[in-house]
Amino acid sequence: MVVGRYPKSHPFSAAVFLYDPVTHSVLLHLRDEKTPTHPNTWAFFGGRGEPGETDVECCLRELREEIGLDLQPHELQRLREYVVTEQQEYQVIFYAEKAVPLDKLVLGEGAGFACVTLTEVANLPMNKYNQDDIRYFANKVSSRTN
Predict the structure, then answer these.
(1) Per the domain annotation, does 3 fall within a domain?
(2) Does residue 16 lie within any of the structural domains?
């Protein structure tokens, strides 16, 4: 199997958030009430992979669709991979260290987006997987700076 490509029998999703190391904040997506899973909660940008698509290609496509942001593959850093047991779906989490002015982004899906400091994220309604991902990332960033 080619790295980053998953067989049809193993559906996958890929998600990404942006991290601004100067402000220690992350750019997150507010899901709307129409989404079938975790409506009206904060999440990463992302979605299900399409047939033949790699996890990186999926992430880049979802960023374009959801906020009109074009990143290059080399800007993505792989954070974690795991199986979401409720959906039996493989999940790949990426981040990009990039500060993007919010007025340069265009909402294409969802209810909104916002930059939130790592300390404030814990107060937001998020699914348990994204909460764990953010905690993992915050520990990683903290260990880098110590």
Answers:
(1) no
(2) yes
Tell me the CA distances in angstroms from 86 to 17, 22, 69, 89, 129, one per residue in order: 22, 36, 30, 8, 11
Report if pTM > 0.85.
yes
Q: Which residue has the tokens 């982004």?
A: 105
Range of the domain at 75: 12-145
Look at the block and give the residue holding tokens 């007025």.
103
pLDDT tens digits along 80-139: 998 887 777 889 999 999 999 999 999 999 999 999 999 999 899 999 999 999 999 999
Both tokens of residue 97? Answer: 């260290």
pLDDT digits (tens, 9 = 90+) for 41-89: 999 999 999 988 899 999 999 999 999 999 999 999 999 998 887 777 8
Q: Would you say residue 7 lies in a domain?
A: no
Split into its structural domains, the chain has a count of 1
Within 10 A of 57 (CB to CB), how many other CB atoms are there? 16
Q: Which two tokens stand for residue 73?
A: 């593959």
Instruction: Judge whether 67 lies within some domain.
Output: yes
CATH number, domain of 50, equals: 3.90.79.10
Q: How far apart are CA 138 and CA 74, in angstroms?
A: 22
